[in-house]
Amino acid sequence: MLNQLTLLTLLGSMVYALPSIQEIKRDSGTYANCRTFYSDIYAETTQNSDLKSVIGGPPPNQQVLVESSIQQFAAGSMVMNQIMNATKIQVSGSYSLWFEYCEPKSGNSTGLFQTHHGLVGNAGYWNVQLDNSPNNSFAESAAQAGWSTLSYDRLGVGRSAKPDGTNIVQIPFEIAQSVSIAKSIRSGNLSDIGKFDKIIGVGHSYGSNLLAGLVSISPSSFDALILTGFTNNATQGPLGLFSFQSTIANVAYPSRFSTDLNDYVITPNMYVDQTGFFHYPNYTNTSLSTFTNTKGEYTLGQQNSISAALQLKNNYTSPVFVVTGEFDAPYCAANCYITSLTSSSNSTGNSNSNSTSSSMNKPSQLDTAKEVFPSSTNFQTYVVPDTAHGINYHTTAYDAYSKIIQFVKNANI
């Protein structure tokens, strides 16, 4: 999985946002008032890849997809090299995205967290409601600390638009969309949420990769980055993306995804979800089933472009905080403290005096992310104990959120 690709230069990307439309509902939590809306987001990039020239269009059936996956991940396969060298294509357009905005009940907000979920996720990952408690909701913890949160179903997911899942819905175009959203927020043109001068980019997994690429072309979009479920050492082998057992979404869950084309895929069952996202027994009885029943689809375009940003060396100087579960499978091979898997022999060391490693100054694979952000003047990591990739569904979620809030406060953002 995630064989590293030559990074896209996204400097030619241009981004814009159109006025938002159709507010859907308003509701409240313990600390936050939340509302949802749709907005048409325009973006363009010249850095998508012509993946159809390599993997073809949507597979006609699941057996074809399975065989294609085997051929892609087989020993000696050249498919990833072919993807890396695929012709770049221009993609542009305005697409409807579904948003959830949560603000403190007090009405006073210090700033905004703009979140980006990962594969198999959706906007709900940032506002998890479990067991009548706000402790699994990042939006609730943010509101309790006086911050607002804007989450959205990324392009191709859930209630957002679902265009060509091979050549359009890829990470370069989604990077351009995120820049567009941030610009619209700073100018006060996104729905009725108002204008924010402080915006922190928050990502999980694919969403963290997205942010790593974004700040190379638009470092001013975010005043800091919070990257969860992330390292610069994405797992190869049985615990990598192949373990997701990508299944055509309308085959795996026909009642939920009957209208999705065959290049929209998903994990096929609860036990695959456990392998990729959970550490037993550090979650409640309802957590795993809730995750499976509400998870989102992803596209073959996303699956085959996710690793592009991991090669990026950029000049982003603002604070970066990497928060990853101790037993993260996709990014740590299920043990973040085994540093022999790191991408370079010196990756557990930090030359920057303002860098802090792990939860107890213990080297971990999270330190490899420093390679992506060599210019950050405040780079820190935290390994969430007894936790896997899906941090927000574990009983340790509130601890992770508390560390994030404290990092933001200490950074004086």
Describe the protein's architecture and organization.
26% of the residues lie in helices and 22% in strands. The chain is of the alpha/beta class and 413 residues long. It has a single domain (10-410), classed as Alpha/Beta hydrolase fold, catalytic domain (Rossmann fold). It has a 9-stranded mixed beta sheet with strand order 1-2-3-5-4-6-7-11-12, sandwiched between helices. The longest helix is centred in the middle third of the chain and has 17 residues, at 171-187. The radius of gyration is 19 Å and the shape is globular.
Quick structural overview:
Residues 342-367 are annotated as: Disordered. By secondary structure, this protein is of the alpha/beta class. The relative contact order is 0.15.
pLDDT < 50 stretches: 1-26, 343-353
Gross geometry: globular
For the termini, the CA-CA separation is: 36 Å
What would you report as the Rg, rounded to the nearest angstrom? 19 Å
Give the amount of beta strand, in percent. Answer: 15-25%
What fold name stands as the CATH topology?
Rossmann fold
CATH architecture: 3-Layer(aba) Sandwich
Number of helices: 13
InterPro entries: AB_hydrolase_1, AB_hydrolase_fold
Pfam family, one: Abhydrolase_1
Keywords: Signal
Protein name: AB hydrolase-1 domain-containing protein
